[in-house]
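As the work plan foresaw, our protein records have gained a structure token line. A representative record is set out beneath this paragraph:
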Amino acid sequence: MRRYKAIISYDGTKYVGWQRQKNGLSIQEVLETAMQKVFGCEVECTASGRTDAGVHAEGQVIHFEVETAIPADKIPFSVNNYLPDDISMLACDFAPKGFNARFSAKKKTYRYSIYYSRFPLPMLEHTHYRSTVPMDVDAMKEAAKKLVGTHNFKCFMAAGSNIKDKTTRTMYSVDVERNGNVVTITVCGNGFLYNMVRIMAGTLYYVGIGKLTVQDVGRILANKDRTMAGKTLPAKGLCLVSVEYGDEDNSLSSNNE
């Protein structure tokens, strides 16, 4: 059996998340069903992380093992023949020795997208959160600087997480940008807690609309109090952009470049 590394992109709107679940259709189930048709056997896919219901991905990384005569770089063509339009395999190659899509990951980058409009814009509505009030992007940028570095991010963890004590993470960058009426919050870190990016985005959004100040963000971190932070923004605005691995594992880029 050979181990392969692949990049998967998907619109998560219609799915219950990455992981197989009894209560609905998952990305994993659809992908593994397609791969079974291609390879003629059951294939188990392991992802870099379990995106939640409604969350999207541009560069989800998976690994799987199979015996096949299909060249690695041709596997996406075969698999995509059996995938719906909202899921696609972008690239595939042999995985380096010891590679694990989940445990070998060093950095992940997520993007949260918000648009400002008095009325819903159908072309953005299922991949962006809509704000009905303008946002102060300069204030959001200043607040974002306070989130960079190694901190205890317990205040940005939603209830229901299995993690209780090990809540320290490192954020390498937190960037806020405006393009017309769209504001994006892009976060790169070594790991994330349950709903962490959506709560961070909600907190920066509250700064942008004046419900919190830049100084409040520092106090929220210091107090480790979830109730002080902003709301958890909806899943539809969140996208897993890319996953980075060690030098020996970067033969296949997760941002498809």
Q: What stands out?
A: The first strand starts at residue 2 and ends at 10. Helices lie at 27-39, 75-80, 137-145, 196-208, 214-223. The chain has five helices and ten strands.
